[in-house]
Design goal:
- By secondary structure, the protein is an all-alpha fold.
- It is globular.
- The two termini are 35 Å apart.
Length: 398
């Protein structure tokens, strides 16, 4: 009885305990945390702000025009049969692919709040319209970290293919058939339309909204840089290494990827940087791990998306499963490309060969995740049962 009471009490106070430990860790590892926070802030100011700010402003301004409705009518013959979503979703998909996280979520939330897409459509859209931007993948990851634009283009292609594949697969999980665009899916624009007289007011609001979103992203980047630093300094990452070392040894994978993968699951930029820094002869292994991290996006991005959709009725649960699915697809496509084309062989050895085992493993994982996604789509009203994520959401929005 006492043990049961202890477990219940622990669940009720779990975040109090975590925050207390986090505060203590900030003091104990203050020197390293200061450096980590400074590096995170530099990363945000150097890469995130210049690349995302113009797209944020452009997106806000587009919402004050009839461009989305025009684009919807143009792309409805493509979006409706392939992804089971209305044509206006093409705007979210295109901008999400060009701009990177979390532009797609901002647009999908606007479409949902204006009743232009259903709840089911919005939750499926969240999965494949939120992607890493081409500038980040090619310039930062490819050229900056791997010193190869070819690797950057490879990762970009497999990343987009994975997003499209997830969009098609999740379309089969739709609760009901999509109605024609002209009947129920015209974009209900409640925003003030742009005119010469209103341009100054609308531009000012667009800039302010974009700055607020950028500050939110910057806060997450700095916070997770500090969290990763604490995990490293406290030795908690070594625990993961001890647990997963036998598995990695079984598949003959360098155990250094355990630590780098955990970092990537928390925050994508730091994770990709850690993966690219592992020096081995089979560089293809680094590329394949990077593909998964880019497809999944990390916990930091997940919380950014959660903050963006908090003003709507969209659930984060399908997004989590969908990004795991996208990361799996990106990994598989990257593996196939590397094995199929000799001119994509970046290894210093010829050890990488096509094997049917990864293909079978891929199929099993995809079937499992698609089933899980379908279940989450049909039970999104149970979002409040996601106790942990709900508490994190309240923590960052209060």
């Amino acid at each position: 009885m006492r043990f049961k009471y202890f477990i219940i009490s622990l669940k009720q106070n779990i975040f109090t305990i975590i925050l207390l430990l986090f505060t203590i860790s900030l003091i104990i590892f203050s020197n390293n945390n200061l450096t980590a926070a400074r590096n995170g802030l530099t990363l945000w100011a150097k890469f995130v702000v210049p690349t995302l700010f113009p797209f944020f402003v452009a997106t806000e301004l587009m919402l004050h025009t009839n461009f989305i409705s025009i684009l919807g009518k143009l792309f409805n013959p493509i979006m409706h049969p392939i992804f089971k979503v209305p044509g206006i979703s093409a705007f979210a998909f295109l901008m999400g692919c060009i701009s990177g996280y979390p532009v797609g979520a901002k647009i999908v939330t606007s479409l949902r709040n204006s009743k232009s897409v259903s709840k089911d459509e919005g939750e499926r859209l969240l999965v494949f319209t939120n992607n890493s931007g081409p500038l980040f993948i090619i310039a930062t990851v490819g050229i900056g970290l791997f010193s190869s634009s070819m690797i950057g283009f490879l990762l970009l292609i497999t990343h987009l293919l994975a997003a499209i594949s997830v969009g098609i697969l999740t379309g089969f999980c739709s609760k009901k058939s999509i109605s024609k665009f002209d009947n129920v899916h015209s974009f209900k624009n409640n925003n003030k339309s742009i005119s010469f007289e209103s341009l100054g007011e609308i531009l000012s609001k667009s800039i302010l909204n974009s700055i607020n979103t950028l500050l939110l992203i910057g806060g997450f980047v700095v916070l997770f840089s500090v969290i990763i630093s604490i995990l490293i300094q406290s030795g908690l990452l070594q625990v993961f290494e001890l647990v997963f070392t036998p598995i990695f040894n079984l598949f003959n994978i360098n155990v250094e990827f355990i630590k780098a993968s955990v970092i990537g699951l928390l925050e994508v930029t730091n994770g990709v940087n850690a993966i690219s820094s592992i020096h081995i002869k089979n560089i293809s292994t680094n590329i394949i791990f990077t593909a998964f991290i880019l497809g999944f996006g990390g916990l930091s991005v997940m919380l950014q998306i959660l903050s963006v959709i908090s003003k709507s009725d969209l659930s984060i649960k399908p997004y989590i499963v969908g990004k795991l699915l996208q990361g799996t697809f990106a990994t598989f496509y990257t593996y196939i490309f590397l094995c199929s084309f000799n001119w994509l062989n970046f290894d210093l050895t010829d050890d990488l060969q096509f094997s049917v085992i990864p293909v079978l493993f891929f199929l099993i994982v995809v079937i499992f995740l698609v089933g899980l996604f379908a279940k989450s789509i049909n039970n999104t009203d149970d979002f409040n049962r996601l106790y942990t994520l709900n508490k994190v959401h309240k923590l960052f929005t209060n």
